[in-house]
Every structure is written in C-alpha cells, then in structure tokens.
Amino acid sequence: MDDRWLTDPDPALLPRARTPEVRFDSAGVPLLGVLHLPAGPGPHPVVVVLHGFPGNERNFDLAQALRRAGYAALVVHYRGSWGVGGAYCWSNVLADAARTAAAAPGLDPSLDPGRVAVVGHSVGGFAALHTAAGDPSVRAVAALAAYDLGAVSQAPEGVLEQARAMFAEDPLPLRGTSGDALFEEMRANGPSWRLASLAPRLAGRPVLLVAAEHDTVAPPALHHDPLVRAYTGLERCETVLLPSDHAFSDRRVALTRAVISFLDRSL
C-alpha cells in the first residue's frame, strides 16, 4: 500500500513545497483560498477541497496529505462565509464550487489542467457532485458524508425540522443569510437538486462515495444509500462506509487513505 502521504518530501526536490494565498472572482466577488503546492516542478494534478456548512471542519489535514502525495490541493471559502464578501446561500455555494473547479488549474503554472478532481465534505460533497456533473473537465469526484439537500427537502417532517434547527444554529461565520432563508431555499429548489438524479451526467468518470456509519447529521439511510442505488450502474463508482461520525473524527487516516488511493487510480 502506497502511504507516501505520510512522509515529508525529499528536501532536495525543487522547487520546494509552497502554500500561497489565492484570490479569484465568482460573480464579481473575490473568493479566498489556500493553495497547497507540492514540491517538485510538476505538472501537478489539482484537487479542489470543498468544505461544508458553515465550514468549521475545513479538512486542511486532508489538503496537507494530498500535497505530500503529490497533489496540489485548493481549499476555498464560498461567498458570504468566513470573511468573504457577498451573501451566503446554497445557490452561491454551488456556483462558487463550479467557479473554483474552473479557475483552479490557472492559479499556478505548475498545475495540470488535464487532471482536476473535486473532493467535498457534507454540503461540500453535495456541491462536489453537482460541480462534476456540470463540468466534464472534472476528471474525478469524491463526496465525503455528502449532505443531500434535495433528499432532505422531500423528507418527512421530523427530518425537515431537524434541518431547520441545524441551519439556525450555525450561521455565525456567514453573512447575508439566516437559518430560515437557507431552509426556504432548500425547500424551493430541493427537488431539482437531488444527488441521485446526477448519475447520468457522471457516467464514465470515477466517483467515490464515503459515508460514516454513526453519522447523525447526514445519516447514510437518507443521504448515502440512495446514491449507492442510483449510481450502481456507473462503471467507475466506488463506495466506502467507515465506522465514524459526520466529521470522521476518529477515522481521519482511513478517510485520507481512501481518498488518495481513489485519486491515484483515477488521475
């Protein structure tokens, strides 16, 4: 098993690894990101890492491991989140994720525009699958404990109320929104956002679906299992179920190994 992501690069490898701050516009608003560039001249495959709602877990450990494995990893903030201008909403998350995947290869000359992948956690997993479905240049996509806003929008009342309460609890690092606004946007757009409906547009490309057995935020029965059934016909879909919680708190090494092994096979 190749665990090169557990080892720091050879100090003789030039240019050395770098971590530049990057900025690029989405609908006229500058998005802020951190680009983890590997050591060596490249060309490096690039992985866009999308965080969830509101973004307390930003998966920087995964980004650093990707870099050690030879992948450039870009972590960004959406409009209206964590000091970025504009307003936060689900539609902007989707638009910003798509814009990030398109912009990523041009952020440094060492990046390979022919090898772009998107990896997202929670709502970031929802955005990652939508991004790949809408952009054929995305070579591979991984959704980690994906939170399916479309499935929730059509779920029983108890699930809806749990979502409303969660949206209301967490918008402190967000601007231009509220829990009620996010809930109503989900209800209005959810039927067209269901992740299961994306299967035909992902055909022929590698897809990784990772779920957490003890996830109470995105329980696999609602968020993961329907995707597994819908994507069964995709010849390059892989699934992993880890015995952990929504953040994979005690399975970060297993999660990282699953993601990097998938990318090694796909890019």
Explain what you see.
- The protein is α/β, with parallel strands linked by helices and 267 residues long.
- It has an eight-stranded mixed beta sheet with strand order 1-2-4-3-5-6-7-8, sandwiched between helices.
- The model has no long low-confidence stretch (mean pLDDT 97).
Widest β-sheet, arrangement of strands: 1-2-4-3-5-6-7-8
* Beta strands, count: 8
Strand content: 15-25%
Calculate the terminal CA-CA distance, rounded to whole Å: 17 Å
Helix content: 25-40%
- The Rg value, from CA coordinates, equals 18 Å
The secondary-structure class comes to: alpha/beta
Contiguous low-pLDDT stretches (5 residues minimum) are none
The helix-strand sequence is EEEHEHEHEHHHHEHHEH
Mean of the pLDDT scores? 97
Number of helices: 10
Shape, per Cα inertia axes: globular
Looking at this protein, list some descriptive labels.
36% helix, alpha/beta, eight-stranded mixed sheet, 267 residues
Write a concise synopsis of the structure shown:
With 267 residues, the chain is an alpha/beta fold.
Summarize the topology.
Blueprint: E1 21-26, E2 29-36, E3 44-50, H1 60-68, E4 72-76, H2 90-103, E5 111-121, H3 123-134, E6 138-144, H4 149-153, H5 157-169, H6 179-193, H7 199-202, E7 207-212, H8 220-223, H9 225-230, E8 237-242, H10 252-266
Parallel strand pairs: 3-4, 3-5, 5-6, 6-7, 7-8
Antiparallel strand pairs: 1-2, 2-4
